[in-house]
Design a protein that fits this description.
two-stranded antiparallel ribbon; 58% helix; mainly alpha; 336 residues
């Protein structure tokens, strides 16, 4: 299956509800300034203490809220709404924001978690519920961090893991267009500074623990920054041999040899995020663009390679459904 329906949505939501409140095992991103900073995940993060790490919990919440909005009559939707009423509260958000003010926390979750926090707020704000207003201070705190950080980042980070600049800008741009015009302008300017001159991409990927395609995520970002005609011109120069199936690696789903290894399991995320990017790019180029059909076919094959495995092991289960949802929502007509 390569499209979303109510049954698959229910499966995703049920999987993710199962770990949003699961505190252990947990991998902290935590600077300790003294013995008083030794604390449990739930004590440090009263909302985002589940799902193995902070950012996975954040995008797990994004995922279940999105599914509850798209499929409000699914059995899981009522569970999501009740859980959100209990967890996404002003008092708990105050504690999450206070954590950001601790000494040594300036780089906390930069930039991946920052971007997902904005995406979560953006989704929460679309519901007729108090969750968006409750999360607004957290979103504003991360928007401020982006505004401080992006001007001083001389070089973009092109790795296919959490530090990737293009991925963070893509999520943050969608949020900024609805909530923060200053951040929108900054993101668009920085994307042009860093990526507008890129051409002849070799796509030497994937790395052994990547869950993002450095090539395709950059293209997906530029599809949102540039107008249709300008993007088509840029894309033709960026990946000039796609019509002849090159670079072949971008059309070939990654092999995942051990789904119990958290780093190797990232490659399932690579397959799903590549599918998302391929679909975004094809949508931006239009149905009649020469490689759009090829792009959509590549997306289908990448989804088929990893969607059946999202529940194979907790190292993937705690996060992969979010990336599967990105891929399945990014239809040729645009994201759902």
């Amino acid at each position: 299956m390569t499209e979303l329906d109510a049954a698959l949505a229910e499966r995703f939501a049920t999987l993710t509800l199962g770990h949003l409140g699961q505190e252990y095992p947990h991998k902290l991103d935590h600077v300790m300034n003294g013995p008083e900073d030794a604390a449990t995940p739930a004590a440090l993060h009263p909302i985002f203490f589940g799902s193995f790490d902070w950012h996975s919990c954040v995008h797990g919440w994004w995922q279940v809220l999105r599914l509850a909005r798209l499929y409000p009559h699914n059995p899981s939707a009522a569970v999501v709404r009740a859980r959100a009423d209990a967890m996404l509260t002003p008092a708990k958000v105050v504690a999450e924001v206070a954590y950001l003010q601790r000494p040594g926390s300036a780089g906390f979750e930069r930039p991946y978690g920052w971007a997902w926090a904005l995406a979560l707020h953006g989704e929460a704000a679309r519901h007729e519920a108090p969750w968006g207003a409750a999360l607004a201070p957290l979103a504003e705190a991360f928007a401020t961090r982006f505004k401080t950080f992006l001007p001083k980042l001389t070089y973009p980070i092109r790795t296919g893991t959490h530090g990737n600049t293009a991925f963070a800008l893509l999520l943050a741009l969608d949020w900024a267009r609805a909530h923060d015009a200053d951040l929108e302008r900054l993101i668009e300017a920085r994307a042009r500074d860093w990526f507008l001159g890129d051409a002849g991409c070799q796509a030497w990927e994937p790395g052994g623990d990547e869950f993002l395609s450095p090539s395709l995520i950059e293209a997906a970002l530029m599809s949102r920054v540039l107008g249709e005609s300008d993007f088509a011109t840029w894309f033709a120069a960026f990946l000039p041999e796609l019509a002849s199936g090159k670079p072949a690696t971008l059309f070939t789903p990654a092999t995942v040899s051990d789904r119990s290894d958290g780093k190797i399991a990232h490659l399932d995320g690579l397959n799903l995020s590549r599918a998302w990017c391929w679909r975004l790019v094809a949508s931006a180029l239009g149905r009649d663009y020469p490689i759009s059909a090829v792009a959509m076919d590549a997306a289908t094959r990448h989804i088929a390679a990893s969607l059946p495995h999202i529940a194979d092991d907790y190292m993937g289960t705690h996060w992969l459904a979010s990336f599967a949802l990105l891929a399945l929502l990014a239809l040729a007509a645009g994201e759902g």
